[in-house]
Amino acid sequence: MSITFKVEAPQLKGMKRRMAQLQKQMPFATSLALNQTGKDIQTAEIANVKRVFKNKKTWWLPKQPTGIKMRRSTKRFLRTTILTNAPFIKLHEFGGIKRPHTGRSIAIPSDNVPKTLRKAGSARKFRGRKTSFVVTLRDGDRAILRRKGSKKNKRNELFFFLEKQAKIKPRLGFRPLAKKVAVRQFPRHMKVSIVKAMNTARR
To answer: How do residues 69-89 score in pLDDT, each as one tens digit?
Structure first.
């Protein structure tokens, strides 16, 4: 018993024509999929940055000079780039030593500091309060303390250590997140883009 399949000449010509159209439209489809994937990565990175830094300043917005931006792909240059010019990003991505940009010390919060004061510039504002003051500790380091209690029961509470430098651990995960989103989203966008490219192709 045998079964024979064959393709008629008109059908073969149609298949060849569609394959040629597909090959011609692949750069357009690939570029479209790359840009759609880039948007997904950009959205994910912005959400992650907001969660990690918890900063009221919207430096991560694409319209900002330090924002998380996207360079789009074209048919001739099949590459989409997600980037930011924020100078502190590398430190939080790879880890390293943080040194003060201005002044002579970095304020490191103690366990007594509430979440509302664990933001950039909070130590400077706290230091300006009437109840706070700077002292030199026994080891020579400085710290910011707060006066607490009534006149009869006064006590000082340690709030910030003032260090010349601080070790920052990697905590951002910019690259791993981008890879995770790209692996998950690109195949989906590619399928949709091929269909769209073929539907818009000249017959």
So the answer is: 999 999 899 999 999 999 889
The answer to whether residues 78 and 27 touch, using CB atoms and an 8 Å cutoff, is yes
CB-based contact 159:146 (threshold 8 Å)? yes
For residue 104, give both structure tokens.
């002579």
The residue length of the chain stands at 203
Ranges of the chain whose pLDDT falls below 70:
1-18, 22, 103, 114, 116-123, 125, 128, 149, 151, 201-203
CB atoms within 10 A of CB 113: 20
At 71 the pLDDT is 94
Distance of alpha carbon 50 from its chain centroid, rounded? Answer: 8
- Rounded to whole angstroms, the Cα distance separating 19 from 10 reads 14
Please give the Cα distance from 93 to 190 (Å, whole number).
29
Residue 87 neighbours by CB under 8 Å, 6+ apart? 66
DSSP class of residue 61 equals S
> In the prediction, which pLDDT does 5 show?
58
Report DSSP state, residue 72.
P
Instruction: Compute the Cα dihedral for 181, 186, 188, 192 and give only its sign.
Output: positive
